[in-house]
Amino acid sequence: MIFDDKRLAREVPFPFNRQSRTAFPLANPAPETAFCHMATPTKSLDSQFYLAADAFFTAHAGLALTFDDLTLATLYSEILPRDTQLDTELAEGLRLNIPVISSDMDTVTESRMATAMALNGGLGLIHYNMAERQQLSEVSRVKYHVPGMIPDPIKVEPGQLVGDVVKLVEERKFGFSTFPVVDEKGKLVGLLSGHVVKPRYAKRKIADAMTPRSQVHTINKKELGKDPIARADKFFTEKPGIHKLLVVDDDDNLRGLFTMNDVERIAQEKKAQFRPARDAQFRLVCGAAVSATRNAFGELDRERILTHVGGLVERGVDTVAVSTAHGHSKGVGDAVKMLRDAFPKLPIIAGNVTSAAGVEFLAQCGASIIKVGQGPGSICTTRIVAGVGIPQMTALYVCSRAAAKKNVAILADGGITKSGDIVKALTLAQGVICGGLFAGSNEAPGDVMEISGKLYKQYRGMGSLAAMKAGSAARYGHAPNPTQKIATEGIEALKEAVGSVDRVLAQLIGGIQSGMGYLGAANLEQLRQNARFIRVSAAGIKEAAPHDVVELKTGN
Ligand code: XMP
Fold first, then answer.
1. If pLDDT is split at 50, 70 and 90, which confidence band does 383 have?
2. Quick one: which atom of ligand 1 is closest to the CA of 467?
3. From the CB of 218, is ligand 1 less than 6 Å away?
4. Average pLDDT estimate for 318-322
5. If you count DSSP H runs as helices and E runs as strands, how many of each does the chain have, helices first?
6. Pocket of ligand 1, candidates 417, 433, 462: which has the most ligand atoms within 8 Å of its Cβ, to mutate?
7. How far apart are CA 423 and CA 416, in angstroms?
8. Which of 58, 154, 373, 441 is deepest in the core (most CB within 10 A)?
9. Where are the beta strands (DSSP E) in 176-335?
10. Catalytic residue among 286, 380, 399, 434
11. By C-alpha distance, which of 100, 137, 200 is closest to 426?
12. What's the gap in Å between 19 CA and the centre of ligand 1?
């Protein structure tokens, strides 16, 4: 369908500014008008093909589109990718420096992943397939993470032999050989230096080979202050030749370890463009998923949910996500309302939905951020099993327009396989949630396994039988401890091991910044304003990937 200019003007309203809650004229002139002074014909020709979101999705109202079905048109730009800003305000008090969140899945996000995500400026949602008490301590681990400090270093005991340690280093392939020495109660009694962890001293007791407590450099945890890295950095400068600083509490129990190498690396990273995402007290941000648990009578287990969320809030959680497969439902609505009443200021994420009515419903119940996605995930089978769900770009468009009216943010959850998908999602959403992209990284729970010379990690849908047996059955509306008889909505799979999540994120962020550069967008608000879409043919999809070559190396 071709649009005439008058119709376009009617159908492309001023964008809505979430922060000021007002409609405002474009900060950057609309691309068509930006070109006006140069060549008027370009204006109408481009705008006949490349349409703004309202015009584009309305024109395709009868067709559900996903990421690969469309592409974004380039625009005149004065923005270099490296100068783009990726910060996003998801709710009052919840601001991220990159719009990327790791999924609340038991093969994706526990404290290690959540810490890495926050250190990179994003957010991790800790899954709920674990005992409630364990989830509380997972959140604490992220909130009390001291940058650069190893909170639980590997320790040895004075009664062991040096030979035991030599063996340990060999077996576990440690890249270090200096160990704090603690007694059975955890009190620091010395430091076993790497200089003596040698086979020639194998028969000596650690107590006889270690540097005694009186000569070990320590700092009380309380003295680390707001910037522990700066404090440790100062220490290493003042004490040439000392490469380890042990952290103790008032009772001289070992509480952590700084190494000079780590501190130097982090001091370097501080100059990086994307700062860690922190709360007002300078702690890393962390989210946790909660289940709309039911009691024996099938009613929402109010007491249990409120007690648990109360515990999470006490530990400093920045947001809770009421995560289910069907968010536009009474149970989820009741859970959100109850949490909103009990915790008026807590940013609440709820979902998942794919309709405007679903967004309005959850927003009215008190959700601040709404997850959009039903069946797009790489391990999902909801669309096959239930015949339900909407391809992601259409779902995002519909939900984004309802969300703007309700002044809530939306997150694109699932189906993202490349950075280009994130750019497309961010033309409509305030952030993205990824599972599969992070499941193969070191920070995801689970061990690496080798199959025919390749390394993999397990990745499974929360609607797979194994995950539901581990606790996620309620998310799919099933009773706990499901049997083979229920229809699962997810599969168990493997992801190739991809190394550290820092590397994965660096690639994703680079891609997002490139996309913004092409669209002349200095920030995410401008990306949403500037985006112009066009459908892609099957041949166009083929053309977009490397083709007609023998690939030797991927881009990175
Ligand atoms: P990706 O594509 O990033 O998707 O791997 C992750 C998202 O998929 C959702 N999810 C599921 N959806 N059955 C489903 O239909 C499942 O078993 C399942 N497990 C996770 C979830 O929204 C996640 O963030």
1. very high
2. 17
3. no
4. 98
5. 21, 25
6. 462
7. 10
8. 373
9. 179-182, 188-192, 211-212, 218-220, 244-248, 254-259, 287-290, 319-323
10. 380
11. 100
12. 30
Tell me how far apart the alpha carbons of residues 316 and 142 are, in angstroms, rounded to a whole number.
10
Of ligand 1's atoms, which has the minimum distance to the CA of residue 490? 17
User: How many other C-beta atoms are found inside a 10 Å radius of the C-beta of residue 548?
Assistant: 6
Can you give the pLDDT at residue 26?
A: 39
The C-alpha torsion from 413 through 418 and 419 to 425, rounded to 10°, is -30
For range 407-427, the mean pLDDT: 98
Which atom, in ligand 1's list, is nearest to the CA of 414? 4
Our answer on whether the CB atom of 105 is closer than 6 Å to any ligand 1 atom is yes
Q: How far is CA 498 from CA 35, 182, 411, 457, in A?
A: 43, 36, 25, 9
Specify whether 286 is catalytic. no
Distance 146 CA to ligand 1 centre (A): 31
Query: 296 or 284, which is more confident?
Result: 284
Which of 536, 180, 522 is closest to 393 using CA atoms? 536
Q: Residue 468, SS3?
A: helix
Among protein residues, the one with the nearest Cα to ligand 1's atom 15 is 380
Alpha helices, DSSP H only, in 355-467?
A: 356-365, 382-386, 392-406, 419-426, 436-439, 465-467
What's the token pair of residue 481? 């401890």
Cα 538 to Cα 548: distance, rounded to the nearest angstrom: 16
More confident residue, 522 or 263: 522
Is residue 242 very low, low, confident or very high in pLDDT (cuts 50, 70, 90)? very high
Residue (of 300, 322, 465, 329) closest to 388 by Cα position: 329
> Which atom of ligand 1 lies at the shortest distance from residue 434's CA?
3
Per the rule left: phi > 0, alpha: psi between -120 and 50, beta: everything else, 477 is left
Q: How many CB atoms lie within 10 A of CB 287?
A: 28
Q: Output 16 or 333, whichever has higher pLDDT.
A: 333
Q: Tell me phi and psi for residue 452, to 5 degrees.
A: 45, 45
The catalytically annotated residue of 112, 141, 460, 475 is: 475
Ligand 1 centroid vs 391 CA: distance in angstroms? 13
Q: Which of 297-301, 341-345, 353-357 has the lowest mean pLDDT?
A: 297-301
Q: What is the pTM assigned to this prediction? A: 0.80
Q: How far is the CA of 434 from the centre of ligand 1 (A)?
A: 9
Q: Is the CB of 489 under 6 A from ligand 1?
A: yes
Per-residue DSSP letters for 323-377?
Answer: E-S--SSHHHHHHHHHHHHH-TTS-EEEEEE-SHHHHHHHHHHT-SEEEE-SS-S
Phi-psi domain of 454 (left: phi exceeds 0; alpha: psi -120 through 50; beta: other): beta
Average pLDDT in the 202-227 region?
Answer: 94
What is the whole-number distance in angstroms between the Cα of residue 12 and the centre of ligand 1?
A: 33
Instruction: Judge if the beta carbon of residue 110 lies within 6 A of ligand 1.
Output: no
399 catalytic? Reply is: no
Q: State if residue 377 touches ligand 1 by the CB under 6 angstroms criterion.
A: yes
Neighbours of 13 (CB within 10 A): 12
